[in-house]
Amino acid sequence: MRNHVTMLVLTLLTALVGAAFADGETSPGVAPLIKMNDGHYIPSFGLGTWLGVDRTNGTLIQVKDDSVQRAVEIAIDAGYRHIDTASVYNTEEQVGTAIRNKIAENLVQREDLFVTSKLWNDRHKREDVLPALQETLTKLGLEYLDLYLIHFPISQYNNGTYYEADFLDTWKGMQDVRGRGLAKSIGVSNFNLTQMKRLLAMSHVKPAALQIEVNLNLQQPELIAYCKANDIAIVGYTPFGSLFHNKAKKDAPPPRTDEQALLRIADKYHKTIAQVALKYIMELGVIPIPKSVTKKRIEQNIDVFDFNLTQEERDVMKKYNNGYRVISVDMWRDSPDYPFEKPTAQE
Q1: Is residue 245 part of an annotated ligand binding site?
Q2: Could you list the active site residues?
Q3: Where is the NADP-dependent oxidoreductase domain (predicted)?
């Protein structure tokens, strides 16, 4: 009941603020902003637009309709201002269409939105970064990105062949595009602690953000602590991990959405277990970017700013951390730059 009341209030506020800003000004999003080390601000909650992996064959799920476009439009309506995509997702065009539609409705202006995309593994040579970003901007229909990330530290052509391209040189290419104003902020994704330390030691430019998998099974305390100590924002993908029965692999450890300890916490705050998990991740200092194409889920996911967990409740959720990865990219284990450890066995 409380969820319905909260969403009704948000809807009414959105309508009222929309009327107040009818002259073309825009309303702020729901999520508070976080200042990054380069002086730019990132919303503390976002929408992911990766459709995931087909469990039957291990390939990326392809875009077959306009569901991503509609999801981004729903998200902006619900107060999201942080949208995450990547060239390999094949969702950039739909994300761009949704953004243009909402700008045309005067609901937002471009500067109100924080748009992230990522450089794929086949474009890691320094001279390839600029044309790759230009292609991304063309697909999005935007003049700049708010954040551009190296998607993985692995250099591999689409035919499966690895090639020599040190991510330090790739990082120089990222600095080049930032210098041109095509990306306001630059960062990395899926780098491990050793790779982060090397990057910081060998470059005078810090990443503004690191995007990694973070969920109840994979809380990454050492890596997160290092980023916090170095003022690097942490963005967390796959925040639900294996919570949902229909998406969990057979070997995935608990918890699921019927976990009694989590149900008690969720009932206390009149929230869902998914919302409680998102709140916990935020209280770790991580910016979650859950993905969904369902209106109800999109609206529920961001409805997490009206409660805080107790230390006892955080301790309960901390116990689920066991290093299990949902996204382990096993096909790259033979790469010298493979960033992940093997998942630990469930204790």
Answers
A1: no
A2: 89
A3: 46-319
